């Protein structure tokens, strides 16, 4: 199996126990933040190692988030963590945390935040590497910022009292409208740096760009980039000028020449037909998901009632009566 | 871990097969790389659509979605998730949610005597052990449930205990073969257009 860059990048990070708050951690260099495993006020090296191990297992697909959360929760308990006093014999001057709050390292919300942020950052790095091969850059020259994770209170909603991604996008130098930019655009790093003064940014040129962000990347196909008027570089010309043709590319180009233009035309026509059928099938599949979601919503009340009756049937007889 | 294999012969283009047959290792790998990248993107978009649409269990329980399938989508895009060889492109998905697309999945407890299946919003997406102390969970005598006492002191079942669970195969968790063929064709077209420009 090929090297998984997400896991490799994660494993290259060094465990860094720290008494720093998240505001203090933001003052550390980007290089440091990309090379260390840490979490604000997590002063115990074993706890940070526990976090690193759980993230590693999630990245390998060995455990899910719920199991990861339980493992880290148990690790913190085993190390004697108490939100009121921190870790036993802790020399660091960490203020007490309200139990169950985000400052409580053992609260579900804090563990979720630590796990999701770190897993997604490692995956985001892997995505960036995978999307920048010669072939991937040609087929998909741009990224679009889109919602991937569901959020109860999304950024930019009235309830959130925060600025949404559209605004952050334009603050980072992006054009208003669909949040699409070429893969090598400076907008991505600016977004990760919180251009416009956002102190929840994570400092990376890949998603997630901020804590608790549910947004990620969608790769934008070349034809769509052309339609949108994005200025595409002619990689082919550059490669040829630099004499940096990959051996495989040169071989395929030669084979096509030998087989002749008539063959190339038949080949492309046939492939376009198969591609069209595939796109039709995708449209049907998306429609099916949409219809399913609508039907799920429409029958939610009935299903809740049926579920309530089912739960009732599980109760001990005297309790149900 | 689930692995999908996409071979040129599956695409259904005799001309593409002929072209591939005329190539040695390097050219074949390059073509399969382009095909694999497109199939990877298709899989990601498919899982992202599912993550956005399928919240039936959470809705039924009145809970927040756990973003389980969004995690599967992001696991697909990782570098290394797609590997191209002279024979095929392979996509490996390191996520427990995808195996069910390929076969029935039987889940058995590994470290406990029984599986605890959440049946209440409080328990959804949480292991029973995580809530055991804080919610003072218990197993009512003669039942196969894990419960807590509600504010009214009544038993509130949070989990049902099972010796195993079989999740039936759901092929729709991944794109159909027709969609993969289409993606492979798009990948091949993009690649051929690119190398033709090099001539």
Task: List the topology elements.
The complex is a heterodimer of chains A (321) and B (199).
Chain A: H1 5-11, E1 14-15, H2 22-25, H3 30-35, E2 36-37, H4 45-59, H5 65-78, H6 108-130, H7 134-139, E3 142-147, H8 165-171, E4 180-182, H9 187-192, E5 215-220, H10 222-228, H11 235-242, H12 247-259, H13 261-298, H14 300-314, H15 317-320
Parallel strand pairs in A: 1-2
Antiparallel strand pairs in A: 3-4, 3-5
Helix pairs in contact in A: 1-4, 1-6, 4-5, 4-6, 5-6
Chain B: E1 2-7, H1 8-11, H2 14-21, H3 25-53, H4 56-61, H5 68-77, E2 82-84, E3 88-93, E4 105-107, E5 115-118, H6 128-131, E6 145-149, E7 155-162, E8 165-167, H7 177-198
Antiparallel strand pairs in B: 1-3, 2-3, 4-8, 5-7, 6-7
Helix pairs in contact in B: 3-5, 3-7
Molecular structure report:
The complex is a heterodimer of chains A (321) and B (199). Chain A has 321 residues and is mainly alpha-helical. Helices cover 54% and strands 6% of the residues of chain A. In chain A, helix 1 packs antiparallel against helix 4 (45-59), helix 4 (45-59) runs antiparallel to helix 5 (65-78) and helix 5 (65-78) crosses helix 6 (108-130). The model of chain A has no long low-confidence stretch (mean pLDDT 88). Chain B is built from seven helices and eight strands, in the order E-H-H-H-H-H-E-E-E-E-H-E-E-E-H. In chain B, the strands form three sheets. Chain B has a three-stranded antiparallel beta sheet. The mean pLDDT of chain B is 89. Classes of the chains: A mainly alpha (321), B alpha+beta (199).
List key phrases describing it.
heterodimer; A: 321 residues; mainly alpha; 3-stranded antiparallel β-sheet; two-stranded parallel sheet; globular; B: 199 residues; 7 helices
């Amino acid at each position: 199996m090929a090297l998984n860059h997400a896991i490799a990048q994660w494993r290259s990070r060094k465990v860094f126990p720290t008494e720093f708050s998240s505001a203090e951690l933001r003052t550390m260099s980007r290089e440091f933040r990309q090379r260390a495993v840490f979490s604000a006020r997590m002063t115990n090296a074993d706890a940070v190692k526990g976090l690193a191990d759980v993230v590693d297992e999630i990245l390998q697909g060995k455990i899910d988030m719920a199991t990861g959360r339980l493992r880290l929760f148990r690790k913190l308990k085993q190390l004697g963590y108490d939100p009121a006093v921190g870790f036993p014999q802790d020399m660091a001057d960490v203020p007490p945390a309200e139990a169950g709050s985000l400052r409580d390292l053992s609260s579900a919300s804090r563990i979720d935040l630590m796990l999701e942020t770190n897993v997604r950052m490692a995956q985001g790095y892997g995505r960036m590497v995978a999307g920048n091969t010669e072939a991937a850059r040609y087929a998909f020259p741009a990224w679009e910022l889109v919602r991937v994770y569901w959020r109860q209170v999304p950024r930019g909603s009235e309830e959130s009292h925060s600025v949404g991604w559209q605004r952050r996008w334009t603050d980072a130098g992006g054009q208003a409208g669909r949040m699409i930019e070429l893969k090598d655009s400076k907008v991505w790093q600016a977004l990760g740096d919180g251009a416009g003064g956002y102190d929840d940014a994570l400092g990376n040129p890949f998603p997630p760009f901020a804590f608790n962000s549910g947004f990620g990347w969608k790769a934008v196909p070349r034809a769509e980039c052309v339609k949108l008027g994005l200025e595409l570089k002619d990689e082919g010309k550059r490669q040829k000028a630099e004499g940096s043709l990959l051996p495989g590319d040169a071989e395929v180009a030669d084979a096509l020449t030998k087989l002749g233009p008539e063959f190339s035309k038949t080949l492309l026509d046939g492939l376009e037909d198969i591609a069209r059928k595939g796109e039709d099938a995708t449209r049907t599949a998306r429609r099916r998901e949409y219809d399913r979601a609508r039907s799920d919503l429409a029958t939610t009340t009935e299903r809740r009632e049926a579920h309530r009756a089912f739960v009732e049937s599980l109760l001990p007889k005297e309790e149900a009566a | 871990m689930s692995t999908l294999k996409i071979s040129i012969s599956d695409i259904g283009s005799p001309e593409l097969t002929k072209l591939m047959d005329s190539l040695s290792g390097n050219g074949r790998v390059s073509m399969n790389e382009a095909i694999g990248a497109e199939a990877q993107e298709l899989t990601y978009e498919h899982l992202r659509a599912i993550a956005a649409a399928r919240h039936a269990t959470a809705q039924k329980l009145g809970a927040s979605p756990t973003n389980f399938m969004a995690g599967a989508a992001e696991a697909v895009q990782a570098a290394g998730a797609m590997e191209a060889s002279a024979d095929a492109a392979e996509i490996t998905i390191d996520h427990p949610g995808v195996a069910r697309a390929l076969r029935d999945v039987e889940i058995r407890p590994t470290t406990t005597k029984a599986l605890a299946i959440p049946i209440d919003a409080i328990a959804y997406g949480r292991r029973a052990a995580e809530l055991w102390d804080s919610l003072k969970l218990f197993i009512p005598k003669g039942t196969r449930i894990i419960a807590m006492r509600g504010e009214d002191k009544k038993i509130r079942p949070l989990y049902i205990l099972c010796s195993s669970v079989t999740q039936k195969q759901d092929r729709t968790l991944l794109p159909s073969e027709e969609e993969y063929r289409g993606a492979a064709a798009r990948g091949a077209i993009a690649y051929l257009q690119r190398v033709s420009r090099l001539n």
